[in-house]
Structure formats: C-alpha cells, structure tokens
Amino acid sequence: MSRGDWAEAYAPASVGNVAVGFDLLGQALVGAGDRVRVRRVAGAAVRVSAICGTVLDLPRDCQRNTAARAVAALLRAQAADFGVDIEIEKGIPLGSGMGGSAASAVAALVAANALLAQPLPLPALYPFALEGEFAASGGYHGDNVAPSLLGGLVLATHSGCLALPVPAGLSCLLLHPDLVVETRRARACLQAPYAIADFVAQAEALALFLCGLERADLRLIGAGLRDVLVEPRRAHLIPGFAAVKQALLDHAALGASISGAGPSVFGWFATAAAAAAATSDALAAFAGAGLSATALLSPVAAPGARLEACAA
Predict the structure, then answer these.
(1) pTM beyond 0.85
(2) Cα 136 to Cα 63, 99, 165, 233, distances in angstroms
(3) How far apart are CA 312 and CA 308, in angstroms?
(4) Which long-range contacts (CB under 8 A, 24 or more apart) does 189-196 make?
C-alpha cells in the first residue's frame, strides 16, 4: 500500500560545473528552488496538469518535461501500479545557469517516491533524475541534479554521486542577470578541439581543488577554483562577465566563474560576510553592461531536496 495519495516536495537551485569540474561538480543553493506536487491516479499515465511561477511555457509531453520524464522512469523501475498527475511551481528561471530543469525533476521525484509502498533512499533517485535532465539538455549530466537532490557540494558521475567535504563558513555569491542562455547553445560553444595542454591544466586545477576540500585548505581550493576549458569559450555569451568576475576577485573571492551554462556568475568566499561585501560591486558591474541582476548569497553546504507534505 502506498504511503499517500498526494505529496509535495521542494528542490533547490544549484551551481553546475563549479568552474573546475565540467559536468562533474555541483553545489546546492539556498534562496531559490522549485516545488512540485504529485497526485496518484489510476492507470499508468504520467501527466503534467499545471505549471505556475517564474516559467509557464514548459513542455507538458512526458518525454520532454524533466519532471514527468524522471517520474515515469521511477514508476517503471519500481513497477508501480499507479500513474501520477504533476503540478509544477517554478521558482527558478530557465536558461539561468541555476539548475532549473534539474530542480523540477528532483522535486517531482522526491514527491513521487513518497507515494511508493517502499520509498527509495534519496541517493537511489539519482539515476531517475538523470533521465529528467536528458529531457532538458539531451545528455545525462548530473552536476545539477546531484546537488539539488543531496545538497552541499557533490561529485556526480554517470554511475553515482559522492558528497564532498566543505570547509566551515565557505560561502557562495551568485549573480543572476536578466538574460537567458540556452544550455544547448552554450554546449555548442565547446565543440571545437582542445589542446592537450588545456586538459592537463584543468586536471591540475581539479586535483588542487579536491585536495583543498579534503584538507580544508582555502589556499589550495582557491588555486584550483578556475576554468581554462569552458569559461573562455562561453564568456562572450554573458555581457559584462569579465567585469563581474573581476569585481568578485577584487573582494577576495577564492575563485569566480560561470554558473552552469550561464548567464549567472558565482564566486566562492571564505565567509558569508566577505561574499555579502562583494554584492554591490558585482551588481554594478552587470549594470555597467546594461543588465539588471539579482544576487543570491548561500552557504556552499546548502541543504538539498525535501519532502514537505504527504497525505491521503
């Protein structure tokens, strides 16, 4: 017997790539997220009945909607004897570089999972969240779904995800300009071949970054928090990017780069106070490029998805 006839869950926004870990690293964010309600229905159909919030024109087809595709994969795998009706409340703009597609898929999964006779532990939902991500990006990239699901900083691969240690106080400042960058367009910028030296430089940075996390060494984290592969090819998609990044670095950011596919830009700071002090200048840098922007301040060790309600 299922635990309930309906459930509601919330999943947070996220920073994909985290500069040095393209398609591998992601962190959760406090302050923005999606909420999804699912209702058990007779039959096997998974359908999206309502969409509200920051985005209204999402596809409703089961294979093209991230939430529906993810839930359908879960129900098939668990041989569920019911279908679901999905209502999505978007709190994350699409094309923002904040993992909006991933959050919808994760929130829907957490809610639908609660209706199963034997709900799965959250990490076991990861493969189904990847199915949802495929609907948005055309690939199985876990750097947004993993942190949205588990919270904190996560290493995400095709086979699983691993929570990474985060030094106390480490904070993220994210600036979201009033601009849309489609993920598929941003990925198209990466098609030309890379020099082997670039891969070596990025591998060095990733090694320093991971060692810094393990040792809680901010110097090492800062030495590794850079992107020599993706950022140079995508920066032109974001007016004012160089000025915004420099504003963050001028306020002692450990590192700064593009959040996911952009256009949001993020920086990591040793403390929340340091991140807050950078906000005004970073917003002014976007304004200088003719873009209004909003700021979001979050601990790197932010919580992940949560079940908010489940009832008959």
Answers:
(1) yes
(2) 10, 10, 29, 21
(3) 14
(4) 189/233, 189/234, 189/237, 190/229, 190/230, 190/233, 190/234, 192/233, 194/229
Helix 126-137 × helix 100-113 angle, to 10°:
140
Q: Which residue has the tokens 């086979």?
A: 159
Residue 48 burial class via C-beta count within 10 angstroms: exposed 0-12, middle 13-18, buried 19 and up: buried
Rounded distance, CA 26 to CA 24, Å?
7
Which residues contact residue 215 at a Cβ distance below 8 angstroms, ignoring those fewer than 6 apart? none
Question: What is the predicted pLDDT for the residue at 135?
Answer: 86
Residue 312 has pLDDT above 80, yes or no: no
State the pLDDT at residue 59: 86
Beta strands at 83-90 and 25-41: parallel, antiparallel or unpaired: antiparallel
Domains annotated on the chain, with CATH:
6-164+301-311 (3.30.230.10), 171-299 (3.30.70.890)
β-pairing, 46-53 with 83-90? parallel
Alpha-carbon distance of 305 to 212, in angstroms, equals: 27
